[in-house]
């Protein structure tokens, strides 16, 4: 009888060790996955900030027309956050385009907005809103690396996440929405300068008499 009792105790202890190992290992793996996920998300977020800043600089620079400025910003975004017109990491941070963007406007690539900030629409000629021309990029950070991601994603589905201090709620869809803004303003383009100079020459009565209106100026 005693040998049988000892064998039973050993068997029970080995089972307990396995359970403890599974629990600790699961927690360890979850922590590692969470760390990797956060590192990837932070790295991509910083890169997107750089991309929107460079695109807003391209949009800021003067061109022949405003369409050229739009095109320059779109080219920078296409070369930095897209590959062959698609997201670099759709499994990690897919772009949020169309009506899901925080700001509506020209969308040269999916997820982007180039143009006037929503708060400045209708106030473009006000000095208070001279900054409100630039670029925005929207993307979602997936929770795919977390072992419990499906449970987290399904929990609270259909509810809104309210930002601190109130404001527009964000519907929870199992992903974390991010937005990168860079509004540096926009230099007048050649076409706008020509129209403004012609308008000034006409309104101020400056005319050489040969139907070629002009204003003495060193640029626009």
What's the end-to-end separation, in Å? 103 Å
Residue-averaged pLDDT: 78
Helix content: 40-55%
Q: What proportion of the residues form beta strands (DSSP E)?
A: 5-15%
Q: Helices and strands: which structural class?
A: alpha+beta
Would you kindly provide a brief summary of this structure?
This protein is an alpha+beta fold and 220 residues long. It has helices spanning 2-60, 66-80, 149-154, 190-203, and strands at residues 82-83, 86-87, 112-116, 133-142, 160-161, 170-171, 175-183.
Could you characterize the architecture of this molecule?
The structure is a single chain. The chain has one domain. About 45% of the residues lie in helices and about 15% in strands. The protein has four helices and seven strands. It starts with a helix and ends in a 17-residue tail after the last helix.
Features:
alpha+beta; about 220 residues; three-stranded antiparallel β-sheet; elongated
Question: How are the secondary structure elements laid out?
Answer:
Blueprint (H helix, E strand, L loop, with lengths): L1 H59 L5 H15 L1 E2 L2 E2 L24 E5 L16 E10 L6 H6 L5 E2 L8 E2 L3 E9 L6 H14 L17
Antiparallel strand pairs: 1-2, 3-4, 4-7, 5-6
């Amino acid at each position: 009888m005693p040998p049988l009792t000892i064998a039973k105790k050993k068997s029970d202890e080995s089972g307990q060790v396995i359970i403890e190992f599974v629990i600790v290992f699961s927690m360890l793996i979850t922590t590692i996955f969470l760390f990797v996920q956060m590192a990837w998300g932070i790295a991509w977020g910083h890169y997107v900030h750089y991309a929107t800043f460079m695109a807003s600089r391209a949009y800021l620079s003067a061109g022949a027309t405003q369409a050229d400025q739009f095109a320059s910003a779109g080219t920078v975004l296409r070369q930095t956050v897209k590959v062959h017109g698609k997201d670099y990491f759709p499994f990690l941070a897919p772009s949020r385009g169309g009506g899901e963007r925080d700001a509506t406007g020209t969308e040269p690539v999916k997820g982007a907005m180039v143009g006037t900030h929503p708060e400045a629409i209708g106030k473009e000629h006000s000095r208070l809103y001279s900054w409100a021309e630039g670029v925005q990029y929207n993307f979602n950070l997936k929770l795919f690396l977390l072992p419990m991601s499906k449970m987290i994603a399904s929990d609270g589905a259909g509810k809104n996440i309210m930002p601190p201090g109130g404001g527009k709620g964000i519907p929870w869809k199992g992903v974390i929405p991010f937005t990168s803004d860079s509004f540096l303003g926009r230099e007048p383009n050649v076409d706008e300068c020509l129209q403004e100079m012609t308008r000034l020459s006409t309104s101020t009565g400056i005319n050489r008499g040969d139907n070629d209106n002009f204003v003495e100026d060193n640029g626009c």
